[in-house]
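User: Sorry, folds how?
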Amino acid sequence: MLLPASLLRRRAVAAAALLALTTLAACDNVTDPPRLAEGEFTVDASGSWRYVSLSDSAIVAPTAPRASSAWDVAFFSTNVTLNGGQAGPGDVTGYCVCQNAGATDAQFLAMTPESELSDFSAVTAVPAGATFSAEVLTPAMVGWYTGSAAAPVADPARVFLVRLSDGTSYAKVHVTSLAPGAGGFASVALEYAVQSSATAAFGPTATITLTPAQPAVDLNSGSATASLTDWDIRLDGTNLLVNSGVSGSGSAAVADGTASFAATTTAVTQPQAYRNDRYSGVFGTSPWYRYNLAGDNRITPTFDVYLLKRGSAVYKLQILSYYSVSGAPRNITFRYQQIAE
């Protein structure tokens, strides 16, 4: 049976309306692609490590940072560490574009966040041939033995000036003997003398042997310990660590002695000569700053662009300042942007 033309027209209009509503509903259900993370903010890295999740654009506070994957990059003073390699389980690696590697001191001093924005914006992909590196532990106490870890020989001539974990007492230390073991040293013997303050004379010389069972020593008490908090020097495999920086919560630090153990009369030296344990990755091989360019002991950023890779995600990062608006140091401002998912 043929339908009247008017009815056919009405059915056609209804069908068109239904198609329009269906299309609109389908459009409403379309999910926009996720917004790539980006931002600029300042972290107060003056008192302790500050951990940042770039994907969340947030500062996080993991209870056990070396076992946490909740962060990507961390800042403390001038140190920058990525969550990968020996520093953490995040598998974050880094590469430096280093577009300012050939800049002069005068050029660095003239750079500003505004003038270097174009360099940051120009990085939109990983350069061909880029090699990303992971973090490697770099102890402050190095050179205290020679030979391989399988056949080590202690070097008693290597003397260290140690600021202890309390931040107020000091010690001179050298390694007098050691023995190899499975997975590290079986024992390391230290000879040391403690200064109770920066102006005090050394106390009596003492010795102590560190082992995997009691790997650490509190030099003020002269006691070997397994404590994770009350210690100054710790045996960790084939490394001697100090209680500060990436290795502990104390204020310990190490400087190199310039005389024999017997001839060393004080363990106090210039503050900038003391080192902490740190992780050395891309920010160790390609430092983000220059020091004292204008003779004013200030930190000057290089404004180099770094790429941080975690899985398939890649972020570009540029450090802009070491100082707060009021001029306080260790307040690091950086900008970043995700350039790959």
